[in-house]
Please model this.
Amino acid sequence: MDPVVIPILVAAIVIVFLVAATVRIVPQARRYNIERFGRYRRTLQPGLNFVLPVADRVNTKLDVREQVYSSDPKPVITEDNLVVNIDTVLYYQITDPRAAAYEVADYLHAIDQLTVTTLRNVIGSMDLEGTLTSREEINARLRAVLDDATGKWGIRVNRVEIKAIDPPNTIKEAMEKQMRAERDKRAAILHAEGERQAKILTAEGTKQKDILEAQGTQQAMILRADGESKAVELVFQAVHRNNADAKVLAYKYLETLPHLAQSDNNTFWVIPGELTEAIRTVTTAFGDQASVTAPPPGAQREDATDADASDKDHVGAPEVEANSTLALDAVAAADEAAKQAAVAVSDAKAEAEAAGETRLPGREQASGD
Model:
């Protein structure tokens, strides 16, 4: 080999080495700390950078993006002397690469230990229930303490979250029983409220039903009474229009009398004072008919005298028997009408008393209510 080529090759290799040692390319979101003869010189920014070969060297390469650090469960004692294991998640970002490299040896370990001590101070002043329900408060206090302590390390704590709080198994079982009891209590309350509402709605429906039935009965009674009133008025007008005889009216009065106590609404029945007058009128009517049919007593005596002259045994006796029979028929008819009226009155009174005894317990119950 030519002796001139060897030095050229050596010079080329040296030049390449020097160029490689001089040029530093830093990626985006990275920071390189440069030391010159063991002393911090500067921090390289992203892009193309030049350093002195042999004299300058890269000490640390740091990532300045926001990062997540999840710690292991740490035992913490609450105010009511219960040991709980708490997992935390830390979101942090390097803001000063020089401080992060030279102010603390291991910033992650330092942050972890600071988180544990802060948790023990914060949760030591809370009971278990307060610890489980005060996560936001714990997170805020942790972030304030960590941000203040890590500021000089060139690290900013953006967020601290409690990932899990695990109480002992006995406490978990007690809490599950308590939760089950609370759910059963709420279910029983809701069931009772539902039954109460159902009973209220049922009572209101029954009330409306009774009201509507009572109104319907009232309207029916009003219409029935109106119809009966119009019927009586029509009968009254017909009677006066036809100029009925007082005897016929008295007979119809006695005929209608038994129907006065047939209504279900009658609890007592009053016998009219005109009953004896009506009976007397009917009796007089039948008596007048008998008197019209039979001849006068004077004529009977004259006929009897004439009959005695001719034949006493065969003529006078039949006339007397006929007249006597007609009179007896009138009296018997009057007595029969009086008996029928008395029977009708007694039947009506019996029915009225029976109806009153049947309705009396219902009225006592209504008055009691």
Remarks:
- The longest helix spans residues 169-242.
- The longest strand covers residues 83-94.
- Residues 87 and 164 are 5 Å apart (CA to CA).
